[in-house]
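FW: tagging you since you asked about this chain on Friday. Here's the raw sequence from the shared folder, copied in full. Didn't touch anything.
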Amino acid sequence: MAALSAAGCGPDTDDRDVTAPHVSGVDGSGDLTLLFTETQLEKALLDANELPGGGRQVSKDRGTFNQVAGQSLEEGDRWADCPTGAKNDLLELSTFRARSVVQQLLPSYREQAAGRGTLTETVLSMTEVRANRYFELKRAIYKGCPKTAVDSEAGPPQTYRYTAEDVELGDDAFVEKSESRDTDADPADRGPSYEIYVRIGGVIVTSGGWKDRDAALTATATAAKKARTMLYPDS
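HL: got it, structure written out here
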C-alpha cells in the first residue's frame, strides 16, 4: 500500500482543489451479489499508520450499522421538518441492514493539538443493487432537505447545511459537506466537516470527521483501494 500524501498532516484547512488517487471500480467484472463477513471487512480497514502523519486506533466494532429498526421523525428530531419526500427517503434508508465494521482513528497531529476529535471509518457489505439504492437515497435526502436543525439545551436550535458533491472514486463516490452558519455555534461546527462515501461493487467505504477536504479524499481513496484489493482481488 502506498503511503498517503502529506495533505492534512498539519492544522485542518477548508476547501481546496485536489485530485484524489485513482481507484478502479469492479462493476461488471465480478459477482456483485457476494456478501462479505465482518472478519473479511476488518481486513479492509485502514491501519492507523496509513493516516497522514500516522495515528492510532481508538476503537473498533462490528455490526453497528442501523442496529435499530425504523426511524423516529418526531418533533425535535433534526430531520422532522423535512419535506415528505425526504422523510420517506430517510425512513427507507433506516430499513437498510448490512454486515459492517467501524473504527475510530486519532491522527497524530490531532492528538498533539488536543481535542480535535477522531475520524470514523466504516466498511459495509451489501449487494451491488442495494448499495446503489443506498447512494441514491443519500443523495436524494441532501437534495430534498439540505438544512436541518438540532435542539440545543443552551439556546436556539443549531442549523446544519448539507451538500453532496460527486467525485471520481471506485464505482461511485460523493463528498458530504456539513456545517453550521449560526453565529452562536461552536467554532468547530461552523467550519465545514467532510465525510466521503465510496462504493466498490457492493462494498461501501465511508470516512468522516474530517475538516480538511484534501486529506479526506486522499485517505478515503487509500481506504477504498485497500478494500478493493482485499475483497475483490480478481476483479
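FW: The two ends are 18 Å apart (CA to CA).
HL: agreed, and Residues 36 and 125 are 6 Å apart (CA to CA).
FW: great, closing this out.
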